[in-house]
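Example 3.2
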Amino acid sequence: MKKTVFIDGAAGTTGLRIHERLADRTDIALLILPEEKRKDPAARAEALNTADIAFLCLPDAAAIEAVAMVTNPHTAIIDTSTAHRTAPGWEYGFPELAGRREKIAASRRIANPGCHASGFVALVEPLVRAGLLSPDALLSAHSLTGYSGGGKQMIAAYEAEGRDPLFAGPRQYGLGQKHKHLPEMAAVCGLSQAPVFCPIVAPYYSGMEVTVPLHASQVKGNVADLLAAYRAYYTTGLVRVCEAADEGGFLSASAFSGRDDMQITVTGNDERILLISRFDNLGKGASGAAIQNMNILLGVDEAAGLTV
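Structure, written as tokens:
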């Protein structure tokens, strides 16, 4: 029997991508509101409570409002906003992390991870859990993202004729060190302090590369030890460990554009180490992760309908 799925906020970048990927699925039935009722509270509430699974692709305040509309205890919610990522009663939707897959499968409230946060968490949480990195470590991270991560408004700005010349180069943002992903980065990894975080948007459509630089004195082990720890940790799911992710001495942030998996690697030397994750900010960093979580709820192959 087909499961019923509703996307609240289907007109946004993440919602559109989820809709595109689900359109050909034969195991689900999409609930679609007519354009004139897309923002009607009564119509949305009915759809939310009718659905077996509801994706929330909304701003934080609207996502909180949508959750309050749900009275059906059988409706599972996958929220792609920031609103519930550290909230009690919500499961963090990164199934490759230890113990998370089983909790996601049993949950009715799943918070999809943030894009930058996904890359950071994938690198740091396993090392903290293994005792190779102290939870009190003072970390930093920089993250390159394609401009699609900024949604429709940023996409339009980057693709407009006569755009600002400054858009031709990478632009760092989050300058006040209050980026919305910082709380989940610290909480999920068990860190006592959030990292110094430097997000950078660059003039390409999609793809993300997150780097956590370390002095060798900060970790117990060398490059080979860290790679071994990752290989032991990531045995199932869509996170792949690569020992030689090198493109002639370069690593492109757009290498995983259009994909829904993630690659992690470790480079550096005996003194300085780089932990690096690469993925698509719209894939494993957003809609791909949301569909992966839906697949787990449905009890089907978690890569169903995804590009890996």
